[in-house]
Amino acid sequence: VAGENKVGLTVAVTLAIALVVIGLAQLVGGSAPEPAGGPALLERIKPVGQLNTGAPITLSAPGTPAAPVATAAAVAPAAPATGAATAAPAKPAAARSGEQVFNTTCMVCHGTGAAGAPKLGDKAAWAPRIKQGNAVLVQHATQGFTGKTGVMPPRGTCGNCSDQELKGAVEYMVSKAK
Ligand code: HEC
User: Fold this and answer.
1) How far is residue 20's CA from residue 25's CA, in Å, rounded to a whole number?
2) What is d(CA 21, CA 23) in angstroms, rounded to the nearest whole number?
3) How far apart are CA 19 and CA 111, in angstroms?
4) 120 and 174 Cβ atoms separated by less than 8 Å
5) What is the dihedral of CA 59, 65, 67, 71, to 10 degrees?
6) In the chain, pLDDT over 90 holds for what percent of residues?
7) First and final CA of the chain: distance in angstroms?
8) Pocket of ligand 1, candidates 96, 137, 152: which has the most ligand atoms within 8 Å of its Cβ, to mutate?
9) Which residue's alpha carbon is at the smallest distance from atom 6 of ligand 1?
10) CB count, 10 Å around CB of 166?
11) Band of the pLDDT at 125, cuts 50, 70, 90?
């Protein structure tokens, strides 16, 4: 009798588990079967989002109408900015630091001592020049200067440097020689 009970219990438990599984499967899968490719299926598998480029969304030819609109809008504002910067070289939007001016122009001679230029950081070469005072140095840098060692060209060949930027470059070189 005890053995029969055991078998009955096992069958009952198995049945209960089977019922639960079937119920879950129905919950997950949904009950009504539908024809493959039907509108409900397309609705379910459509992309979750679409890129909004501001242009009307057309799904026919992929990419053609939307892409040019997006790039034109992105590039257009940048063009006038660069145009303005190159059109007015004497007045750069933001003044460069003395170090920047030095690195772009003055370094050609003053970085290596080429053409007899006092080298950056060469205290012996700069000491007698610094004695003249910054005003004279700035004037020589701006107007050009021919001394014992060579020719310092006007504005150090930096045609688009402002007086302020030249002064900054001189001060930068002086600070490195102290
Ligand atoms: C083509 C080479 C060359 C370039 C570029 C150049 N210099 Fe010079 N610079 C010289 C030479 C050569 C001298 C030394 C002239 C002398 O004393 O005989 C000199 C000297 C100077 C002096 C010392 C002037 C004095 O009274 O002793 C200053 C300041 C100076 N340059 C600033 C600058 C600045 C600032 C720049 C960049 C904007 C610059 N230089 C770019 C060649 C150059």
Assistant:
1) 9
2) 5
3) 87
4) no
5) -150
6) 53
7) 109
8) 152
9) 156
10) 22
11) very high
> What is the average per-residue pLDDT within 144-169?
96
Geometric angle at alpha carbon 106, from 103 and 108, rounded to 5°: 85
Q: What is the mean pLDDT of the chain?
A: 81
Convert the pLDDT of each residue in 50-108 to its tens digit: 767 776 655 655 544 444 444 444 544 544 544 444 544 555 468 999 999 999 999 99
**Residue 133, both tokens:** 């005072």
CA pseudo-torsion sign 99, 101, 104, 110: negative
Name the burial class of residue 153, with classes exposed (0-12), middle (13-18) and buried (19+) by CB atoms within 10 angstroms of its CB: middle
With a 6 Å cutoff on the Cβ, whether 149 touches ligand 1 is yes
Residue of 99, 108, 109 to test ligand 1 pocket, by largest number of atoms within 8 Å of CB: 109
CA of 107 from ligand 1 middle (Å) equals: 10
